[in-house]
Structure prediction request, 186 residues.
Amino acid sequence: MRPSVMTVHRMVTALEPGDNLEAEHRAHTLGWLRGTGDVFRRVKPAEPAQHLVSYVVPVDPADGCVLLVDHVNAGLWLPPGGHVEVDEDPRETAAREVREELGVTATPEPDPLFLTVTRTVGVDAGHTDVSLWFVLPLGRAHRLTPDEGEFRAVRWWSPDELRSADPGRFDPHLGRFLDKLQRSTR
Prediction:
């Protein structure tokens, strides 16, 4: 196993699933990582057809509000983030994506809180993203410089707003992430 894939394997192995679906996603991901070194997107949008993504979920420590972006290509409200470059550590991807997409120089927590395996929708539909979800403690007063080419809007959502909104407008696993975040001791 190439060193960069071994790093991801260790990260996923250490992740404690929050529910049965996350346990299934973890088992799938570990099998995939053992079976191939080709886990990084090489050609946009979908080569190889399954590849790594780092999501970064900015969370205001004061009130638990979550920052999401209205993603142009996906047509959904998603956490900021992006594809892990070849041999890049997913933690570096998370920090890079926050810088590029929000103009924020901050370091997300070092270990992902959540893992998902999701078939993509929208403009780039049809491939599978294996996503590591990193939490970034960030106050709502922090100045943002969003990437206007990627997002229609950027918004802080309260947990109550997210729970009462149409789930079809968001990543299909966002509610489960929020449940795990609430249960975490972070």
Q: What stands out?
A: Helices lie at 3-14, 20-35, 90-102, 159-164, 174-183. The mean pLDDT is 92. The longest strand covers residues 50-59.
